[in-house]
Specification:
2 helices, 36% helix, elongated, two-stranded antiparallel ribbon
Length: 168
């Protein structure tokens, strides 16, 4: 059998520095991987919302209107779900198959939506990006030249605020 290597006390600072560097690099890679995963979730979420918007525009021939003069993600989500809502024989609102079912559970918030024929439906009322920030809806070109679209503010990179848009 070979002897186990002996560590001299003079080598301990070098060994400790090596361990600190190793764990620092491992943590850095983990955080970069987590940010990449969150960015992918954000892009998929916004692509799904943009697909739902296009589907809404095909059926209604227009983008959802602003609520009280302001566009909101809630206004879009409520209008979209009302478009697919039907009452069952018991008088309860049911939503038929639509694009919102493809959103991850971690990015949606549920709540009550008032329906046009009376009653309420428990549906999607807000959507967040992969970083936990709210996604915004722009309905006309005065608000943003890319409109109608969805946008989200990404975490600051080197002190700059960066926005991501759904239709580009």
């Amino acid at each position: 059998m070979s002897k186990m290597p002996r560590i001299k006390t003079s080598d301990l600072p070098i060994l400790a520095a090596g361990l600190v560097i190793f764990f620092g690099v491992a943590c850095w890679f983990h955080l970069r991987n987590e940010d990449s995963r969150r960015l992918v979730v954000t892009r998929i979420t916004m692509a799904t919302l943009q697909s739902a918007l296009r589907q809404y525009e095909r059926i209604a021939d227009q983008a959802p209107r602003a609520i009280a003069g302001h566009p909101s993600i809630y206004g879009f989500l409520a209008a979209y779900q009302r478009q697919f809502a039907r009452r069952d024989t018991a008088g309860h609102w049911k939503i038929s198959h639509n694009d919102l079912i493809y959103l991850r559970r971690s990015v949606v918030q549920h709540g009550w939506i008032s329906m046009s024929g009376g009653g309420r439906y428990y549906g999607v009322v807000n959507v967040k990006d992969g970083f936990g920030h709210p996604i915004h809806y722009f309905s006309n070109a005065r608000q943003n030249w890319r409109a109608p679209c969805f946008t989200s503010r990404l975490p600051a990179i080197v002190g700059k605020t960066q926005w991501i848009y759904s239709n580009h």
